Amino acid sequence: MDDKFKKVVSHAKEYGFIFPSSEIYDGLSAVYDYGQNGVELKNNIKKYWWASLVQMNHNIVGLDSAIFMHPLTWKASGHVDAFNDPLIDNKDSKKRYRADVLIEEYCQKIESKINKEIAKAKKRFGDDFDENQFITTNDRIVAYKEKIESITSRMSKALEEDDLKSLKKLIEDLEIVDPISGSKNWTDVKQFNLMFSTKVGSTAQSSSDLYLRPETAQGIFVNFLNVQKSARMKIPFGIAQIGKAFRNEIIARQFIFRMREFEQMEMQFFVRPGTQQEWYEKWKENRMNWHMSLGLGKENYRFHDHIKLAHYADAACDIEYNFPFGFKELEGIHSRTDYDLSQHEKHSGKKLQYFDSELNKSYIPYVVETSIGLDRMFLAVLSNSLVEEELDNNSSRIVLKIPSVLAPYKAAILPLVKKDGLSEIATDLYNKLKTEFNIIYDEKDAVGRRYRRQDAIGTPLCITIDHQTLENNTVTIRNRDTMEQKRISTDSVSKEIIKEVNLKNWLV
Ligand code: ATP
Q: Does 295 map to a domain?
């Protein structure tokens, strides 16, 4: 873990955002709990996503389907047969890896060599440097690129044909070593299904196998007609859902980036066959705009188009975010064709068709899906916001510059001192505001320390009640990011908070 990432993890724990699960028993790998501030931030991310889709689009409605589903759901969706990762063990370190990830990491190393060459050449040639020409003509780079291509195509072929022997052979040919032990002593590659199974029923004989859902999307597919009919939805329309998903990830590292129990925010958009490409492009743009609206930095996002498509998709890409450990998938946008609904039709024997009155015919709609990991979004916000600032007086402060609309608390109410009636005025103000916003009251310690505490949990505004308040009913309002303070009338505090957090100023 690099330094920045370590700081994010320890800040998250120290300030009540994220705790390891069942920590008193030494924790449970890849499972985490959200603390008092974490749950607020997480809920605010959910609200922001929900508002942008369900509240602001008349043709998108919500759903909250159960985690348990009929086991045939997962047969139909392909998860029973194909939701696998190829795993490999190192016999010396006893560590387990995803075979494809080991190979991808090998390619990333070659990629970084290419980038180094480019950076060197840029320095050497200065303004005259033509990057495109350099990449296509420099012998070393051309050779590196060819190597990556040949490795990638061998890997894709092996994965596609489920040829695990060739996958192992590739690891051996590339002389990939265990990153921990440096050993090349590998086991064979095995397929490993990522779904957790459990039993329902009271006795062994009557019980039957169930799965914990590995994605929320299938709950939407099986309810497609229920929603369409009861809400009289006309195509194109969407169904959105936020909920837990479970995957028995082989390598669960990188904090809340890859967990075994996590939350997804998914929206399936049902469209006329033949129009899916157009909608896919629209949703790509729409979702990227949503990310941009939070102001975490345009340079921290990029699209990554899938070259090798899943069998059910006719287009797919990821929105990647620049996490402290590099650009990684944050959200997936997939054009899933009519695959899922057709499969459910086949396995359930029930028609899942939509009658299009304009075309005067029935069809199985095509689906464009947007699927974002809530916990990954949380990590993106948290890691982007954590800043250590040097101040003029040779001191420093740690501040979470969380977008105000997502901040756990919108404002802190702070009486300068407890005496002289200031606590009472502050309590009155707190009581007036608390029905409108999530705010916090703090009267412990010197006001400077209280400011630091609020900075560290990302509270955008601090309202201080002092002796002047007694005289003219004004308070100071301090901005978290600029640390500027101004005096305003007590009666306008609510308006100032609204300016900071109103959705109108964020989601346009
Ligand atoms: P990855 O390639 O990183 O395993 P994926 O392509 O399997 O992810 P999808 O099935 O497309 O992921 O799931 C949609 C979203 O759910 C992802 O973009 C990610 O944000 C989130 N997600 C998936 N797996 C996990 C996990 N184990 N922990 C946290 N979030 C996850």
A: yes
**pLDDT tens profile 340-394:** 999 999 999 999 999 999 999 999 999 999 999 999 999 999 999 999 999 888 8
Confirm whether 55 is domain-assigned. yes
* Closest residue by CA, ligand 1 atom 11: 332
Q: Best substitution site from 31, 85, 262, 327 to test ligand 1's pocket, by max atoms within 8 Å of Cβ?
A: 262
Is residue 311 within 8 A of residue 364, CB to CB? The reply is no
261 touches ligand 1 (CB under 6 Å): no
CA distance 183 to 176: 9
Residue 373 Cα to ligand 1 midpoint, Å, equals 6
What is the predicted pLDDT for the residue at 241?
Answer: 98
Tell me, using a 6 A CB cutoff, whether residue 247 lines ligand 1: yes
Instruction: Give strand pairing partners of 270.
Output: 237, 367
Given a cut of 50, the residues of the chain with pLDDT beneath it are none
Which pLDDT score is estimated for 215?
96
- What residue numbers bound the domain in which 487 lies? 397-507
Give 357 Cα–ligand 1 centroid separation in angstroms.
37
Structural domain total, the chain: 3
**Nearest-atom index, ligand 1, CA of 328:** 3
User: Can you give the pLDDT at residue 190?
Assistant: 94
Tell me, what's the pLDDT at 160? 81
End-of-domain residue from the set 193, 220, 240: 193
Q: Which residue has the tokens 């890849």?
A: 30
**pTM exceeds 0.85 for this model:** yes
Domain identity same for 183 and 223: no
Closest CA to 179 of 105, 121, 70, 274: 105
For atom 19 of ligand 1, the residue with the nearest CA is 373
Centre of ligand 1 from the C-alpha of residue 112, in Å: 25
Asked, for residue 273, whether it belongs to a domain, the answer is: yes
Residue 291 CB–ligand 1 contact under 6 Å? no
Residues 305 and 417 reside in one and the same domain: no
Domain identity same for 383 and 404: no
Pocket test residue of 195, 213, 264, 325 for ligand 1, highest count of atoms within 8 A of CB? 264
**Under 8 Å between Cβ of 19 and 13:** yes
Residues 6+ apart with CB under 8 A from 129: 121, 122
Residue showing tokens 């689009």: 57
How far apart are alpha carbons 171 and 152 in whole angstroms?
A: 12
Ligand 1 atom 12: the closest Cα is on which residue? 332
Give the CATH number of the domain where residue 465 resides.
3.40.50.800
Verify that 65 and 109 share a domain, yes or no: no
Q: Are residues 383 and 401 in the same domain?
A: no
